[in-house]
UniProtKB/TrEMBL annotation:
Protein name: TGFBI protein
PANTHER family: FI05614P, PERIOSTIN-RELATED
Any Pfam family the entry gives: Fasciclin
Gene of this entry: TGFBI
Record domain FAS1: where: 22-156, 161-296
Sequence intervals crossing the membrane: none
Organism lineage: Eukaryota, Metazoa, Chordata, Cephalochordata, Leptocardii
Amino acid sequence: MAYKIFILVLGLFVTFSVARAENDLIDVLRDFQEFKTLLQLIQEANLTDTLRGKGPFTVFAPVDRAFTELPEDAWKSFKDVNLLRQVMSFHVVPGNVTSSELRNNVLPSSAEGQKIRINVYQNATGGKVLTANGCPITKIDAKASNGVIHVMSEVMFPLPGPSITETLSRMQNFSFLLTALQKADLAGTLSGDDTYTFFAPTNEAFDKLPPVYLEMLLTTKMALSDLLEFHMFYDVSFRPAFYDGLKIRSLQGPLLTFNVKGPPGPTAKYMVNNATFLGLQQPASNGVIHAIDQVMISPEP
């Protein structure tokens, strides 16, 4: 049996169920009534007994709607039980990690040893937005006898975790960008320990530039470096960090201006300057990549 309480968290009112002391993590998830898909997949991944065990464990729990918004290819991949187990285990952290420990850029390790990046952002009204690998955490600290649950509106996927440069090399449609980073001596910068948010124009985005301008970039190292540094800034900002009218200073110096249309989430349209975000955000060991459909030109000084 569970009962409801209201609590002011991170600038927003959230509601969650607080379990009786004898209820384990599986019992508490069942009490919520919004985790039917998660519970089914946990069972198919043979993790139910684990989450009924002594623990303690911290579960980042996607709601049913998060699974319905997944692409068909993701659902097909779940037929591979080993992959499904990896995805489900990625949402489980050994230990009792409460919200007080979920600080910006903290990197707890999942049950399989992969890092999960926690970020805390400020929204347009001054409230706080909490994310795990860029996925919003909407409710926190649902206690169970063997751990704690944080509710998520999206599903996280485990990634190999290479640097931004290496991640780009594994992605399709960024060969021209990789060449440009090498020519500008920035490939090493995006492979180091400092963290960055990088806006990555696709090959088609570069094709839209006038050929003469493109040739000038490839033969003028300083101009190319300035252009690419206009596409990045220090720190890690996933999509929930961006709101309409937000301005962030680029590594080059001029400001980047963000435009967001629609409610926050997978269906919202995100823009930075004249460029539209494409597809999913791509976490890396030292930051995050946002694919964009235009090359952004820095304003004249």
